[in-house]
Amino acid sequence: MKILYGYIGKSIFKYFFILIGFFSVVIVSSQLLHLPSIIYHSGLIKFLQVLFYVNLSFFKYQLFFGFFLSSVLVGYSLREKREIYAVYSAGISKNQLIFPVAVVSFIFVATALVISLVVVPFANRERAEFITINVKKHILDSIVQQNFLKLSDDITIYVSQKEDNKMEDIFIYNKAQGITITAKQAEFSNNRLVLKNGYMQLPSEDGYSILKFEKYRFVLDVKYIKKYEFEDMENKKLLEIVRSNPDLKNRALAVLADRILFGIPFVFIGITGFLMGLQIQSSRDYVVTTAIFVSILYLIINTYFVKLIQKGSVSPLIYGLILTIYFGSLTVYFYRKK
């Protein structure tokens, strides 16, 4: 029995890692086109860091599809190689057969919760910050003294003297807002351009207004600057919003529900996929296509109910119950199928 359990468990993980490798290559390759060109010139280590964060950002659903399909393929392999008949001939029941799949499933439940609650939001925040910092740093490095540089379609900067991240006699013009800024000194600090001892010319009804400042933090609002989304906030901040901000409470609840309830499908999909592979008397392509259809339907249900929770129309508990019924009914159906 131990040999059978070990064989099933190892086979699931073998297929899983193969699928994860395939998904990672496809996802990273598709996202390369969406990276700012500046990242390609930031060095190999930084470039690989960006690709790592990109892959982690999509790892949540890689985990789902990888585990589901690997379970399907293991079940199908047992049936296709006629090994299932030898198993049943040895007096091993269906319950005993799915026991190792259930054990592996609970490992994936814990993994899914960690990935959903911690890893993916962290990766999205880090990716946004990493790209922003490196894009801004590249722009600052591109500034050449006594030369005009267009930071974007609207912003032009001129620096008389520059040494490392310190500059003197700075001129900045924002065409969109009609604002002109001059300063004696500037320094790139904490991802911002800190201007010192200068003037700001602002358009007004009477023409222009002149403001004098000792220190002004100029935000480099240029293309490819990324900010992480509300959906990528830390769990602690989302809980604070639920407790203290009625306007954003439902939105925060929707994000938390999406993360926490992501673990529910993993209770079922290992056993469901394994039984699908065993019980559906069709080709591998048909079985895999059926599993993909079940997965896509789950994604549609998830998107729909998360939106309803965000609007305050449905309780997260109701959505959790619906997920349990959806995957539970599939498991029962394929368990009873002859």
Order of helices and strands: HHHHHEEEEEEHHHHH
Please report which band the strand proportion falls in: under 5%, 5-15%, 15-25%, 25-35%, 35-45% or over 45%.
Answer: 15-25%
Largest sheet: 6 strands, antiparallel
- Distance N to C terminus: 23 Å
**Number of DSSP helical runs:** 10
Mean pLDDT equals: 87
Number of strands: 6
The outline comes out as elongated
**Helix/strand structural class:** alpha+beta
- Computed over alpha carbons, the radius of gyration is 28 Å
Order of neighbouring strands in the sheet with most strands? 1-2-3-4-5-6
What does the model show?
The structure is a single chain. The protein contains ten helices and six strands; from the N terminus they run αααααββββββααααα. The protein has 338 residues and is α+β, with helices and mostly antiparallel strands. The protein has two domains: 245 residues, no CATH class; 67 residues, no CATH class. A six-stranded antiparallel β-sheet has the order 1-2-3-4-5-6, with no helix packed on it. The radius of gyration is 28 Å and the shape is elongated. The model has no long low-confidence stretch (mean pLDDT 87).
